[in-house]
């Protein structure tokens, strides 16, 4: 029987291990091409060689989204909770002009520009580009107002793990999300995801999570109400959030979302968090943990995170 503390740790580790597992097949939007690569193989995680069409980095490394969650995790531990100014600084340092993410091809990339891809370094995605520009312009609100991508459901995991069961959980999640994504849609989706993950952290395996979250989203007295809550609720049964509710174990859930391609790492990270919270750290296969380059560090950080509010 796992404790709440065990489930907090497992959710953080599960998210980042899943992200690393999905990375070599990240952003493959051509489903036929993806099927041609993986065929009928069951073990598609940590695929070698990488077939990522945008960037190629060593297997076991995190995607740009996993790196954001990792930076958030480190900031939470270092500052004993959410400190947005400190997080802005550490995010700028990790992704900024002096980082491994600096690349001229990536810098000039837009969907209508002919490009030479993949690059041989990590990929700096749109919301981070907007964040860096806003930081350099000295803006107080640094998050991208134009980016609605679902990576918000991965970034919220360490914050939810720390604050689950506390009344300020959703507020702290929103604070962190808006550092790089100041988009109501991205925030609303991630807050719904945080509500789901919180249920698994507090209660472990339970069958009525979706009903509880849907009821909460329709409650006029709910914590941290968003204008888009009801719209998001309408999609819960058919979204990546639903994948977290139907997974039978960690590997099955993450592999299932990897097989449909696209932004599998952000979806997989969220599913990895939820399944790990349900089935415990031991539910994450040892082979996955061993192949995640940051595993020893993220396990230590996750345990330190859970010591902040004993």
UniProtKB/TrEMBL annotation:
Record: residues binding Mg(2+): 266
Does this entry carry the keyword Magnesium?
A: yes
Cofactor remark from the record:
Binds 2 magnesium ions per subunit.
Q: Does the keyword field hold Magnesium? A: yes
Keyword entries, A-Z: Magnesium, Metal-binding
Co-factor(s): Mg(2+)
Q: Which domain of life does the protein's organism represent?
A: Eukaryota
List, alphabetically, the Pfam families matched: ADP_ribosyl_GH
Q: What is this protein called?
A: ADP-ribosylglycohydrolase
Q: Which organism is it from?
A: Batillaria attramentaria
């Amino acid at each position: 029987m796992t404790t709440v503390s065990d489930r907090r740790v497992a959710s953080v580790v599960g998210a980042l291990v899943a992200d690393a597992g999905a990375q070599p097949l990240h952003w493959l939007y051509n489903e036929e091409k993806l099927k041609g690569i993986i065929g009928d193989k069951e073990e598609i995680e940590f695929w070698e060689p990488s077939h990522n069409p945008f960037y190629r980095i060593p297997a076991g490394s995190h995607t740009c989204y996993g790196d954001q969650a990792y930076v958030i995790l480190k900031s939470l531990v270092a500052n004993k909770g959410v400190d947005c100014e400190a997080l802005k600084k550490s995010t700028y340092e990790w992704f900024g002009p002096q980082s491994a993410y600096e690349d001229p091809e990536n810098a000039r990339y837009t969907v209508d520009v002919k490009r030479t891809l993949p690059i041989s370094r990590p990929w700096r995605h749109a919301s981070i580009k907007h964040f860096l520009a806003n930081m350099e312009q000295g803006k107080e609100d640094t998050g991208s107002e134009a980016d609605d991508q679902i990576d918000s459901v991965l970034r919220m995991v360490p914050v939810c793990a720390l604050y689950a069961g506390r009344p300020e959980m959703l507020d702290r999640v929103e604070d962190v999300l808006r550092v790089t994504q100041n988009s109501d849609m991205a925030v609303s989706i991630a807050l719904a995801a945080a509500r789901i993950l919180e249920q698994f952290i507090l209660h472990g395996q339970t069958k009525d999570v979706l009903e509880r979250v849907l009821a909460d989203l329709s409650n006029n007295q709910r914590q941290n109400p968003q204008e888009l809550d009801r719209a998001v609720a309408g999609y819960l049964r058919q979204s990546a959030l639903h994948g977290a509710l139907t997974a039978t174990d960690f590997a099955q859930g993450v592999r299932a979302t990897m097989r449909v391609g696209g932004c599998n790492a952000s979806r997989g990270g969220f599913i990895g968090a939820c399944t790990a919270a349900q089935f415990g750290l031991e539910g994450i296969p040892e082979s996955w943990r061993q192949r995640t380059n940051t595993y020893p560090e993220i396990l230590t950080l996750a345990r330190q995170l859970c010591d902040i509010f004993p």
